[in-house]
Amino acid sequence: MTEKVKLYDLSKCTGCRACQLACKQWNQLPAKQTHNMGTYQNPSDLQPNTWNLIRFQEVSDGNGGVKWMFRHDACMHCTDAACVRVCPSGALSHTKYGTVAFDQAKCIGCKECISACPFEVPRYDPEKDKIAKCDMCFSRIDNGLEPACVKACPTGALRFGDKDEMLKLAYKRAKELGGDASVYGDKFVGGTHMIYVLPEKASVYDRLPENPRVPLSIIAWKDWLKPLSLLAAGGVLAGSLFHYIIHGPKDTGGDDDQASQEGGK
Q1: What's the average model confidence in pLDDT over 135-163?
Q2: Considering only CA atoms, which of 50, 6, 45, 29 is closest in space to residue 138?
Q3: For residue 228, what pLDDT is reported?
Q4: Measured between alpha carbons, how far is 14 from 234 in angstroms, rounded to an integer?
Q5: Domain boundary among 194, 214, 234
Q6: Does 192 share its domain with 226?
Q7: In the predicted model, what is the mean pLDDT of the chain?
Q8: What span, in angstroms and rounded, lies between the C-alpha atoms of 132 and 92?
Q9: I need a labelling partner for 260 at 20 to 30 A (CA). Which of 2, 45, 117, 248 fits?
Q10: Any residues with CB less than 8 A from the CB of 83 and at least 6 apart, and which?
């Protein structure tokens, strides 16, 4: 099955938040009271009922003025997904398209994925005792449709398609923009399935890690210590089996004979 990628060109985004609303409508996410934080951004962060968010920030244009920047923030759907690695219940898993699916029915609310994700995406819902995150509208893409956010985007900032095609478009667009423009997402965590075309350096954007990676603690446990512990457990079992083959079961016949003799007296 061909891997699918959502491509987001920040230079084409107008911050209309149609994608944010479409996500809520398609996934039937309830509205909740928000508060004015002195910024165009609303709500202030990703939430259990807000799976994608348009982040807004003002930066200097270098000439004494300011310019507005927007960023569509949602699950990056990593190939080497830390959340999938640590999930003990199988609630998080990779789909045939390379995206990361979430089965809320299997979630046990352990929050391991929250601390593991380098993009700080999963959100805990205390009312349900479960986490929540974007699943790239798996039900839509599995039926030949594009994600709801992509469908709603009026400027073409969001696109969806085969991975190879989207990457070619991304690098072509970055070259057209020139300057500090770059492609973000295909060089770390095994490659993400949401790719950004950044007009500015990654360091300029709020809450966007420059070099995201699976935490070393997870690599150490999952890739090194856990296999060693399983190997050690296997060694114990093998040793026990070998001992049984060589020496047989424990002989308790002497005790039985003695008990029989005492009973006969």
Answers
A1: 98
A2: 6
A3: 46
A4: 58
A5: 214
A6: no
A7: 88
A8: 10
A9: 248
A10: 92, 100, 112, 113, 116, 117, 121, 122
End-to-end alpha-carbon separation of the chain, Å? 80
Bond prior to 43 in cis (omega within 30° of 0): yes
Q: Are 94 and 101 in contact (CB under 8 A)?
A: yes
Taking only the tens place, the pLDDT of each residue in 199-257 is 999 999 999 999 999 888 787 766 644 454 445 445 555 555 654 577 666 555 555 55
Q: Which pLDDT value is given to residue 217?
A: 78
Three-state helix/strand/coil letters over the chain: CCCEEEEEEHHHCCCCCHHHHHHHHHHCCCCCCCCCCCCCCCCCCCECCECCEEEEEEEECCCCCEEEEEEEECCCCECCCHHHHHCCCCCEEECCCCCEEECHHHCCCCCHHHHHCCCCCCEEECCCCEEECCCCCHHHHCCCCCCHHHHHCCCCCEEEEEHHHHHHHHHHHHHHHCCCCEEECCCCCCCECEEEEECCCHHHCCCCCCCCCCCHHHHHHHHHHHHHHHHHHHHHHHHHHHHHHHHCCCCCHHHHHHHHHHHHC
Residues comprising the chain, all counted: 265
pLDDT digits (tens, 9 = 90+) for 99-123: 999 999 999 999 999 999 999 999 9
Parent domain of 227: 217-264
